[in-house]
Amino acid sequence: MAKKRILIAEDEEFIANLYKMNLEKRGVDIEIAGNGQQALAAIERQVPDLLILDLLMPDMDGFQVLQALKPKNLTLPIVILTNLSQDIDKQKCQEAGAKDFFVKSDLTVEDLWNKISKYL
Amino acid sequence: MSTSSLPQTGEKPRVREWPLRDYAHVLFTMGSIVLLFLFITLSFVASQFVQGSMDQQAASRFEREVQSVQRRIQERLTAYHHTLYSAQGLFSASDEVNRSEWRSFVESLQLSRRFPGLTGLAYLPRVTSGELSDYIRTVQRDTSITGMGYPDFEVHPEGERDVSYIVTYVEPFSGNEDLLGLDASAYQMPTLERIGETGELTSVGRFDLGKPEAEYVFLMPLYRQSIALQTVRDRRAALRGFVAAAVNPQAFLGTILSEEQTAGERYTLEIIDGSDTLLRSSFPSGRMDIGEDEEVITVDLPIQTAGLTWTIRGQAPTAFGLETGELKLPQLVFLGGFGFSWLLFTVLYLFTHSRRNALRIAQRMTGELGKFQLAVRNAANHIIITDPTGVIVYANPAVMRTTGYSPEELIGKTPRLWGGRMNVDFYDQMWKTIKDRKEIFTGEVVNRRKTGDEYDASISIAPILDHQGVLYGFVGIEEDITDRKRLDKAKSEFVSLASHQLRTPLTAMRLTLETILSDTELHLDIRHTELLQHALEYGIRMADIIHSMLTVSHIEAGRVSLVLSDINFCEFLREVIAEQGPVAAIKKVGVSLDCSGGITLRSDAKLLREIVANLLSNSIKYSEPEGKVKIRVSSTEDFVSISVSDDGYGIPARDQNRVFQKFFRGENIVHKSTDGTGLGLYLVHSLTTLLGGNVAFQSEENHGTTFTVLLPLTPPADGKEEDSHR
Asked: CB neighbours of B98 closer than 8 A, spacing ≥ 6?
């Protein structure tokens, strides 16, 4: 069986690479997109098995990505990994189709893996 | 938005009373008293007047009574006279009337039946001294009635008289025998001559005629036919005798008075001739006579006939002819008047009194109303009052600042003029609250000013109900919260951004440390590993602090909205305990859970987790190593209670009243641990309240603490349904 592919949309390259490094140890392929547009382009090329989406990103933020993906009616599961934590943000993401909402600073990689593996 | 019951009507605000200047009160009171005395006096006068008029009525009634008696006596006397006129007529018809004819004449009159009291009619011819012996012989031989005549007839009294008027015929003869031969001239010559000269029927007075009582004698002169009777001389020359009538006054008057009968009335009648009382009768017979000290009506009426003057005197009590009821009329009038006066006085007095009270109340109310009106008018908040259909009946000047319309522009309109811009559900909810449930509605709306600008407003609308709960209308208060909203938004954005900016480097640090620690190829020695482990723990604590601060900020901004779901409570607790497992393991603190049965709680799982996790982490944190933490759950029909107990440091008694304050940390643990923000229990308290529950604790320093949270099994109103993740 081919490796699962996860697309991480994260503007902080250092952080994105740390996630990539730690998650790939668990046997998945990680692709990184530096902003919303890159993420949409990557999905356009090949729909991944999971999208981990940051919210605050330059050029095109996570909310806009959600809005852009919504009409496509993809089966792609999307989880939000961000450092925003207000109810309003969570609510907006949920309404736009996100499956889960995690606060980056509150999770270890282990925690994250435990929570996302069910989507793979 | 939330609803709450109406506040109870509190004590009436005390308003200083203004002094009452009411001189009219004094005037009315004095007037009432004056009227009281005036009316009592009038009652007395009226009763006297009634008494007077009754007396007068009685007197005139009695006078009529006496008059009727007087009339009957007069009539009877006139009837007696007529017998003499008849006799005069008899003598005029023929020159000679013999004894037999006289008897027939008198018998035809039926004296005893038709003329009671008339005891006899006599004929007294004129006899001169020269004719006397012939006269006596003629009488002695008169056999027209008795065969033997009157052999013993003689004239008496004895004496020489030029002219005699001798009783020759007298009928009825029985009882009058002694009168035969009586010469009247012996007693009454001058009177007889005078009667002869006048030609009038005349009473000559009362005489002892040898009968049981003295009798009145009436004389009628007889004249010779041939001579014209023009002058006194003519009459003197023509006088040939008299006819006489004798009347027994007692018999005559007695028959008249015996006919007298006025039912039930007490009175006396007296017939007086000069100083002699002829007859005195009391009525009704057998009843007590009029007393001497009694007040009486006295009526004196004259009876005059044939030179005779009698007086008829009637005496009766002043109440003559009055009914028993009528007698009390004057007293009744007085009593009635007196009673009426008091009644009038009472009514006037009460009127005056209640008028004063009414004035005082009116003044007080006017004063209070004025003050309330001023207060509402000068209030800083926009206040409107509408009728039950929402039409504005009052608006205070502050409406100008919020809506841009003047109060005058609003009256008669509805709040749709500047509002009505929310969705239909909102207004449905509002009307249901204020009109159907009659509760206060509060909410936030976006309205539009007269200028067209939109603004945020906080509104509260309360139904105005009377004591019976009848709806009079609504009072609406609106506050422009546009600026506050803008400020809140800015603050929230700042907090959000700041926390994001703090979390990003923290994330990088944590991930870095985790990456290094999990990299088995690095072969770190134990000392480096410990250092990195500590660095990671501090990173985690910093994340916790940021989390708590953000949560507090959200709660305080009122931005936390409940997301309700059904929670299997025991399962839920096990999860939370498991999350804290590593921390407890490090300190070797044993955590036990006593939770059985399927308790299902409908609540906000995330907030509930926050509450339990905080309490559990505190218990572990403030326990001695190898301490014991116990979690117990119990439930009733409506509530579930979770208690978290430890046998740790406890909270000093002096600190216990500050436990739920923000940034509180017990004095005893500040020295033991630098770990802790002082936000945990503040959060527990705020979140528990938010979930409709409450939290309490028991603690003793060095013996441990028990926190107990009581939560409703069903959620408080106003929550959002959600089944998915958090």
From this structure: B142, B144
Cβ <8 Å between B503 and A105: yes
Amino acid occupying residue A4: K
- Looking up tokens 């005496």 gives B315
Residue B365, both tokens: 């109310």
Query: What is the C-alpha to C-alpha distance for residues B192 and B607, in angstroms, rounded to an integer?
Result: 157
Contact B508 A12 (CB under 8 A): yes
CB contact at 8 A, B440 and B1: no
Treating both helix axes as pointing N-terminal to C-terminal, what angle do B482-518 and A109-116 enclose, rounded to 10 degrees? 100
Q: How far out from the chain centre does Cα B504 lie?
A: 85
CA distance B380 to B64: 96
Q: Dump pLDDT digits (tens) for B193-249.
A: 888 888 888 888 888 877 788 888 999 998 887 777 788 888 888 888 999 999 888
**A10 has a pLDDT exceeding 90:** yes
B578 and chain A in contact, CB less than 8 A: no
pLDDT at B670: 75
**Closest-CA residue to B668 (of B648, B652, B645, B647):** B652
Instruction: Answer whether B339's CB lies under 8 Å from B36's CB.
Output: no
Q: Which helix (H) or strand (E) holds B566?
A: strand B563-568
Tokens 């852009």 correspond to A68
Rounded CA separation B257/B270 (Å): 10
* SS3 per-residue string spanning B361-412: HHHHHHHHHHHHHHHHHHCCCEEEEECCCCCEEEECCCHHHHHCCCHHHHCC
B546 touches chain A (CB under 8 A): yes
Report the alpha-carbon distance of residue B313 to residue B277 in Å, rounded.
Answer: 10
Q: How far apart are CA B400 and CA B406, in angstroms?
A: 5
The CA distances from residue B31 to B37, B163, B398, in Å, are: 10, 92, 52
Among A120, A118, A119, A74, residue whose Cα is nearest residue A96: A74
Q: Residue A30: helix, strand or coil by DSSP?
A: strand
Q: Hey, what amino acid is at B190?
A: P
Long-range contacts of B333-340 (CB under 8 A, 24+ apart): B333/B43, B333/B46, B333/B47, B333/B50, B334/B43, B334/B44, B334/B46, B334/B47, B336/B43, B337/B39, B337/B40, B337/B42, B337/B43, B337/B44, B337/B46, B337/B47, B338/B40, B338/B43, B340/B39, B340/B43
Query: What pLDDT, in 10s, does the model give residues B677-722?
Result: 788 898 899 899 888 889 999 998 888 999 999 998 887 654 444 4
Judging contacts by C-beta atoms under 8 Å, the chain B residues touching residue A25 are 518
pTM given for the model = 0.46
Write down the ipTM of this complex: 0.88
Largest Cα separation within chain B, whole Å, is: 217
The amino acid sitting at B207 is F
Under an 8 A CB cutoff, do B560 and A105 touch?
no
Phi, psi dihedrals of residue A99, rounded to the nearest 5°: -85, -35
Q: What is the mean pLDDT of chain B?
A: 84
- Name the strand (E) or helix (H) holding A110: helix A109-116
* Contact at CB, B499 and A85, closer than 8 angstroms: yes
Which residue, A104, A115, A109, is CA-closest to A25? A109
Q: Is B567 helix (H, G, I), strand (E, B) or coil?
A: strand
**pLDDT tens-digit readout, B594-629:** 888 788 888 888 889 989 999 998 898 888 888 899
CA distance A2 to chain B (A): 25
Q: How many CB atoms lie within 10 A of CB B68?
A: 12
Residue B14: how many other CB atoms lie within 10 Å: 7
B640 Cα to chain A: minimum distance (Å) = 26
Q: How far from chain centre, in Å, is Cα B50?
A: 35
Q: Which amino acid is at B627?
A: G
A40 CA: distance to closest CA in chain B (Å): 23
